[in-house]
């Protein structure tokens, strides 16, 4: 029994349990004020919550995985590999930029307080908190496996996919909406999973997450014009998810051939 518990709650899997725990705690705290405040105040309170949760998780991450200081967790080591593995999400960001340049005739209802609280504060803290939770905690255990098999990476990827997707179901009103949200957000999360597994760099995943979330959340304030390019981009919108999924899967599979990550795995095993 002790051996089973030591395996389940050992370094290979403890992060998964912690991610589930913090997902539940975060949802519970959010439910306390969800309908009590709105607008700028809601975004600022929610940003503060994400920052506090992220800081607590960072300290716990360092303790569980024996990191000497935060610089071992958040740095630019292997950033080139991280950017390469994140090519899918980078392409999607470029897609959004072109979409806004060619299809937006104006921004409606976005005040400076909203822009600061929703597009900056909430998104930068989201990248920080969610990447520690759904990539750092869940995926770090993979690097403690002596044999870095494709099947092992795919299992960790699936866990991250499901938890990250389920973490975005709060505002869904139907089963179909929930399945759609889980799949689309799960695919976006796969890009960040690919970054972490291929480069073992969490900071690049955080930065790209933050950058992607800005245009993704700005869309509700955009007044659109049906230009030829905009119509074309609309037609290929869901195709972008396919590209991200395929690109991410390629780098997740290739991660086992990453010599830098293999050396790190050997040093912490």
Walk across the major sheet and give the strand order.
1-2
Average residue pLDDT: 92
How many domains would you count in the coordinates?
1
- DSSP strand tally: 2
Helix content: over 70%
Largest sheet: 2 strands, antiparallel
- What percent of residues are in strands? under 5%
Low-confidence stretches: none
Query: What class do helices, strands and sheet pairing give?
Result: mainly alpha
Radius of gyration, in Å, reads 19 Å
- Give helix and strand order, one letter per element, not per position: HHHHHEHHHHEHHH
- What oligomeric state do these chains adopt? single chain
Number of helices: 12
| Distance between the ends | 23 Å
InterPro entries: Rce1/LyrA-like_dom
Pfam families: Rce1-like (PF02517)
Organism: Variimorphobacter saccharofermentans
GO molecular function: endopeptidase activity; metallopeptidase activity
Q: What is the secondary structure topology, with strand pairs?
A:
Blueprint: H1 2-8, H2 14-33, H3 39-64, H4 79-85, H5 87-103, E1 104-107, H6 112-140, H7 150-166, H8 175-199, H9 202-218, E2 222-224, H10 228-235, H11 237-254, H12 259-268
Antiparallel strand pairs: 1-2
Helix pairs in contact: 2-3, 2-6, 3-6, 4-8, 5-9, 5-10, 5-11, 6-7, 6-8, 6-9, 7-8, 8-9, 8-11
